[in-house]
Amino acid sequence: MRATVYRKEHFNAAHRLHNPSWDMETNQKVFGKCNNPSYHGHNYELVVKVSGEIDPDTGYVIDMKMLSELIIENVINKFDHKNLNLDVEEFKDLNPTAENIAVVIYNLVRAKLAAQYDLKVLLYETERNFVEYPEAK
Amino acid sequence: MRATVYRKEHFNAAHRLHNPSWDMETNQKVFGKCNNPSYHGHNYELVVKVSGEIDPDTGYVIDMKMLSELIIENVINKFDHKNLNLDVEEFKDLNPTAENIAVVIYNLVRAKLAAQYDLKVLLYETERNFVEYPEAK
Amino acid sequence: MRATVYRKEHFNAAHRLHNPSWDMETNQKVFGKCNNPSYHGHNYELVVKVSGEIDPDTGYVIDMKMLSELIIENVINKFDHKNLNLDVEEFKDLNPTAENIAVVIYNLVRAKLAAQYDLKVLLYETERNFVEYPEAK
Amino acid sequence: MRATVYRKEHFNAAHRLHNPSWDMETNQKVFGKCNNPSYHGHNYELVVKVSGEIDPDTGYVIDMKMLSELIIENVINKFDHKNLNLDVEEFKDLNPTAENIAVVIYNLVRAKLAAQYDLKVLLYETERNFVEYPEAK
Amino acid sequence: MRATVYRKEHFNAAHRLHNPSWDMETNQKVFGKCNNPSYHGHNYELVVKVSGEIDPDTGYVIDMKMLSELIIENVINKFDHKNLNLDVEEFKDLNPTAENIAVVIYNLVRAKLAAQYDLKVLLYETERNFVEYPEAK
Amino acid sequence: MRATVYRKEHFNAAHRLHNPSWDMETNQKVFGKCNNPSYHGHNYELVVKVSGEIDPDTGYVIDMKMLSELIIENVINKFDHKNLNLDVEEFKDLNPTAENIAVVIYNLVRAKLAAQYDLKVLLYETERNFVEYPEAK
User: Fold this and answer.
1) Which of C14, E89, F34, F109 could disulfide-link C41, Cβ–Cβ 3.0 to 4.6 Å?
2) Residue among B9, B10, B34, B132 flagged as catalytic
3) Cα dist from B105 to B66, D67, E90, whole Å
């Protein structure tokens, strides 16, 4: 019996959308006010989806306290109250769009999650803009 | 690297559930208070899901401002502060259930969205009743 | 020891903003798309606030099941899945703005609520537009 | 044309996580404060997902009022304001984790739902911990 | 310049409404399914409102991290994952209605909060039932 | 007949808490991770409360479309996708705590709102931390 469990965490961060290989005008045209050189910020809501067998001894797919700690240690502590562009090495050469942040979080969690589990990441940049990686079916 | 982006918009509309090929009694029995001839209404919350490759230059699956504008121009401007039965031609001969509204919205967005993208539509009629088209996996 | 209890209910209704003593042009100018002659609609969220002494025998300000029934019988059954302009007598000569709906609901509940209680009504027309009557302090 | 409809219901219940084949120390270590012998409780939010063809006569996948009644009769009336461990027979020998509660609800609804429909169950134990059964794709 | 700050915390607990000076029948009649002898439970959402001067040096009414810690140490650690009737001494002779829980929380926070601050407590038992103590104006 | 209307808007901004008359160590001690020199950010939710007479001709306390435009022109356009410390002159010498941001917004709206109206401002920095100015009663 396989099920999916979802754990929600959050972090608050500053960022700026910018492609350094483009000139200022192109960046402004493509990214608009998200290109503001002084940065802006968001309350990011993160939902980590883990699928696997329900363990008959515990009734758990995975211990949610352990999953929460894994996310906090590997993602939240790195991203919370930070400037994604300046403070987080993964974005030194990667534009911190919601899509790319979701991919980075997926990779950080995937590296620590036991191989028996399937993983997906949902990231809410605002209530009205959110992403899922890998893609939803 | 494929991801899914979600954009949420909303519209407020009146509607009435009714099958003109049935008599009043059958309509009343099947649709109950939703059959009220003077109409009732909802705050519809619409979530448009678009799946595709993350563009390495922008970090976007699709520009969310453009997606939002596409939805507003083709769906919201047509439906918002309208009576779906009386004011929206797509429902002249189609019962405006949440399911059918979702199908109509899917077709309106699909016609304008580049073919490379996969599309799904979620429509919340209330917090407790909502639909997805095409069906969820 | 006085406390305030809040009970949330909801109803779905159609309405149209219109002042019959004005011409069409003025109505259109003042009420914009809310003046649509075919109506539009909302999921109204209603919060009824009742203040009074905490009864030492029950630990209740008021029995919330009784308060809920009072609201359902006197407000929800009258308003839900209705056209406020056409189906609800209180709006025959009263424009069903959120403010006026809140006043009407206040009067309907006040007439049935024991005199020992203080009463206020909050009405959410949308998540972003809501009203309180009598005014908030 | 196949779509998915979602119906949300809720129930409030007490529970305790416990494996009777383990000693107290192991239970405490694995389940932590969820193992409290006097129980704790939750406002469970339940979302039932039903997929099927949109009926051309009604515009419905399934009548949501009937789906709601099916859930209330077979799940809510059994679980609401109950102690899951003590009052609900399905958990006499089954640990009432969110995963197992979702499986039990799935089986209760599946037994009553016409075979033509696909079914999934989402159960929110808190806003931050929730599960889906069968697993999400 | 005086302002009000709000801090939201939560706890999950079991409880039962019961007046030991009444017979079983009266308890059943007054408290209905909330009187279930095996208990039921809730996800309680707690909002603590603190009013005072904005400190010109910090720009704070009160340090929210300190307020959060005060609430966690004095309320959440006492109530979370507990049975209010059995595990929390304040309810040994007090019926744990939402109103009485709010009064108890008010007293616990008031005892630790500097006298210069005004205090109010909002407690959400469910999304649809909540209380404020002292009473709202 | 006086009522209160509420209009909700939002903006996304970066900020940093810092008192320039203190040394680095004191700033770090008082403001913790909110003192990060590279900034962090939030999705701010703003609720503007306006109290006044219900106009018998319109049924409005105030035209919500005009209130929304007033807020967007005078607050949102100034704050959205900005760095409050660097881009907004009001915070050149004022620490952008939630309390101070609420005061600044109050002053900006008060200057444009007709004198007959009472005004309050609620600002949500996160779902769990929010402020009201002037203080709640």
Assistant:
1) C14
2) B34
3) 17, 24, 55
Q: Give DSSP secondary structure letters for chain C.
A: -EEEEEEEEEEEEEE----TTS-HHHHHHHHGGGG-TT-EEEEEEEEEEEEEEPPTTTS-SS-HHHHHHHHIIIIIHHHTTEEHHHH-GGGSSS---HHHHHHHHHHHHHTTS-TTSEEEEEEESSSSEEEEESPP-
- Given this model, what pLDDT does residue D122 score? 98
A28 to A33, C52, E108: CA distances (angstroms): 7, 57, 53
What residues contact residue C48 under an 8 Å CB cut-off, 6+ apart? Answer: C6, C7, C9, C67, C71, C105, C109, C119, C120, C121
User: E residues 26-45 near F, CB within 8 Å?
Assistant: none
Q: Catalytic residue among D9, D15, D42, D125, which?
A: D125
ipTM of this model?
0.96
Q: Is the dihedral of CA B27, B33, B38, B40 positive or negative?
A: negative
Q: Which domains does chain B have, with CATH numbers?
A: 2-133 (3.30.479.10)
Predicted TM-score of the model (pTM): 0.97
**Chain A residues lying within 8 Å of F38, measured CB to CB:** 14, 82-83, 86-87
Contact (CB<8Å) A95/B58: yes
> By the CB < 8 Å criterion, does B82 face chain C?
yes
Q: What is the pLDDT of residue C137?
A: 85
Surface of A (102-121) touching D: CB under 8 A:
118, 120
Question: CA nearest B134 in A: which residue?
Answer: A137
- Helix (H, G, I), strand (E, B), or coil: what is residue F77? helix
pLDDT digits (tens, 9 = 90+) for E66-115: 999 999 999 999 999 999 999 999 999 999 999 999 999 999 999 999 99
pLDDT digits (tens, 9 = 90+) for F77-95: 999 999 999 999 999 999 9
Chain segment F6-65, per-residue pLDDT in tens: 999 999 999 999 999 999 999 999 999 999 999 999 999 999 999 999 999 999 999 999
What chains are in contact with B, requiring at least 3 Cβ pairs below 8 Å?
A: A, C, D
Is B81 catalytic? The answer is yes
Contacts of E86 in chain D (CB under 8 A): 38
> For testing the chain B interface, which of D2, D8, D60 should be mutated: the one with the most B CBs within 10 Å?
D60
Is residue A135 among the annotated active site residues? no
What are all long-range contacts of C73-76, with beta carbons under 8 Å and residues at least 24 apart? C74/C108, C74/C109, C74/C111, C74/C112, C75/C9, C75/C11, C75/C46, C75/C105, C75/C108, C75/C109, C76/C9, C76/C10, C76/C11, C76/C46
Q: Do F36 and A87 touch (CB under 8 A)?
A: yes
Mean pLDDT of F93-105: 98
pLDDT at A132 over 90: yes
A19 interfacial to chain B (CB closer than 8 Å) = yes
Query: Nearest 5°: CA angle at E97, between E93 and E101?
Result: 80
D touches A, CB cut-off 8 Å, minimum 3 pairs: yes
Q: Give pLDDT tens digits for B2-20.
A: 999 999 999 999 999 999 9
Q: How far is F96 from chain C (nearest CA, A)?
A: 25
F and B touch with 3+ CB pairs <8 Å, answer: no
The reply to whether D90 belongs to the active site is no
B67 φ, ψ (degrees, to nearest 5): -65, -45
Q: Is the pLDDT of residue C33 over 90?
A: yes
Q: Which of F15, F41, F83 sits opposite A42 (nearest CB)?
A: F41
Q: What is the CA radius of gyration of chain C?
A: 17
